[in-house]
Amino acid sequence: MNTNKRSPAFERGKRLLRLTPLLFFLLASEVSLPSQAPPNTGGGATAGGNILIFGSIYGLSALIFVVTWRKALAYLKKTGVALALLLGLMMFSFVWTVAPLSVAKEMIHFGGILLIGAIAGSALQENPESFFITLFTFAMAIVLVSIPAVWYLPHAAIGLNGRWQGITAHPNHFGIVSMLGVYSALAVALMKPSRWPWKVLGLLSTPLFLYCLIRADSITSLMIALFYVAAIPSAVFFTRSQRVVVALLKAILWTSIVLTFILTAYVVDPDFFQIDAFLNRVGRSRTLTGRLELWTLGWQAFLERPLVGWGFDNLLTLSAQSLNRISYGQFHNGYLDILVRGGIMGALFVMTFIGMLTLRILNALRRHREPAVLMLILLSGILAHNLTETSLMQFPNALWMLTVSLHYAIFALQGRQPQASPSFDRPATPSLGPYTYPRSSTATPWRA
């Protein structure tokens, strides 16, 4: 009898321990803490900038790393050249910054995020399903506390114009949490395999997250959430097709449904498809609520220092030295923001990181259809969110943490055994003489 074999409960506990820093970081980045950013800084500003809170999380991550150093180190080595170059560019900005302490804080956050992502990746190889459950737990915890806060503490939980912000620092933050709640609820409800309590809880909580999104009145997050509502069931619908003919029929059926919906909307309200009417319906103006003017200022700031940008110091150098005296926390566009902070070099490193991550996810689709396609949908939503908000290379920020976590999670997924019966391929049927083994209709479970 092997007495060294660990029980399943013990291994499950170790896996949950390695996911704890990720959960704590997500909560701390969105929950309103004493040193939060001012409310008027908008959704791109990170809530809870208290370095002591995040320092404790990074310290916990370091302890877990020491305990599980073999597996965690293997994933930390997969950080990649692009992220390492971004860290180096951030260090290089010490040369010209007027706020070296701010750069140092950003570097601490960046290093902590990489450590948390590597530790989480070592746990996800054993159970990729845990990534979606961790994200669902994070969103559900904030929403369940925020709703009573709205009822009993409306002066603190309801922002300007009646927008819900709950226990977060700003309604846009509450919108991001609810958006991620919609994504994770649908993921745990529809992915296969999954325990039935998670499926029921996911299906029941999806309308709750959508309602919170509407009350937060965060237009960008609401539109991304609607994308998740359409994309996740569709992706699961198609990836479970075992034959190309069935997949094509499903594609034709889904396309017909979408076209019918669009044509019906056009017949009912043709004005909706005019640009002014559409922007008015989604609560935007032709200037996208002042964003166009802000983007113009950001572009001018980029042209002043196009190669390496103004540095990663929360734009303090830009505020002090820019010819136009631009003073903003962020530019409500993640791609423009990285151009301003890191210049062409920073944007090149970020886009290389995103491009390589996308290619790895697409490659994983061949062997791990459902988890890979769910990760691709999450990444697509985050990238779309950065068109009018900012999360790329923002510290501490939940969406950037998830983007980096996806980098390590996809390596964890690729380390798993492939799912049986890949899409569009008829599985081979082994035979021994006159007897033929029956084909298995079930996929290999994700759990170890």
For the biggest β-sheet, the strand order reads 1-2
Give the N-terminus to C-terminus distance in angstroms: 21 Å
> Residue-averaged pLDDT, rounded?
80
Q: What is the rounded Rg?
A: 23 Å
**Count of structural domains:** 1
Q: How would you sum up the global shape?
A: globular
Main beta sheet, described? 2 strands, antiparallel
Uncertain segments? 34-49, 420-448
Oligomer: single chain
**Which sequence of SSEs, written as H and E, runs from N to C?**
HHHHHHHHHHHHHHHHHEE
Q: Into which percent range does the helicity of residues fall?
A: 55-70%
Q: Hey, roughly how much beta strand do the residues contain?
A: under 5%
Q: How many strands in all?
A: 2
How would you classify the helix and strand content by structural class?
Answer: mainly alpha
Tally of helical runs: 17
Keywords:
single chain; 448 residues; mainly alpha; two-stranded antiparallel sheet; 17 helices; 2 strands; disordered C terminus
Please provide a brief summary of the model.
By secondary structure, the chain is an all-alpha fold.
Explained architecture:
- By secondary structure, the chain is mainly alpha-helical.
- The protein has one domain (14-417).
- It has 17 helices and two strands.
- It has helices spanning 8-30, 51-67, 69-76, 81-92, 100-124, 129-152, 154-157, 171-190, 196-216, 219-239, 244-268, 275-281, 291-304, 316-321, 334-364, 369-385, 398-414, and strands at residues 431-432, 435-436.
- A two-stranded antiparallel ribbon has the order 1-2.
- Helix 2 (51-67) crosses helix 3, helix 3 (69-76) crosses helix 5 (100-124) and helix 10 (219-239) runs antiparallel to helix 11.
- The radius of gyration is 23 Å and the shape is globular.
